[in-house]
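Asp23/Gls24 family envelope stress response protein
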Amino acid sequence: MADGPLADPAGDLVIADRVIEKIAARAALDVAGVVRHSGAVGSLLGATGDRLGIGSDLPRAAVDSSGRARRLSLTVALAWPCAVTRVAQEIRARVADDLLEFTGDRPVRVDVTVRQLVPRGEVSRRKSGYIDLPPLEDADSRAETHRSEEESS
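Predicted structure tokens:
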């Protein structure tokens, strides 16, 4: 009976780097002071902007799984004002703890880069569902310009 299926080795579980990156980004958002931030430039450049690290959505994580040790780089936006050093330390700890809990593996290094500081007033407006519209005089002048262009054609 020892030769049955239960005696076979269990095999390997491979967790894709993309999954690790999603867990890390989600864990960073659970730290007080870390906010979601979307950059308009990144959406215009698409994948090129992501590779260059310009204007893409934050937080963003990248995994380096070369060799046996896993390293992680996080790029985040923080609500300003805040204690940047303390928040970065909390991000490192939270991400490492969550990765250990969900994957069974703790990264040997978690680097945190603060790419954007977002004023707290802007953060609270976004969370309340507000969006900023252009002032009325700008909208009126654009409508007038549009009418002038239609009349001249």
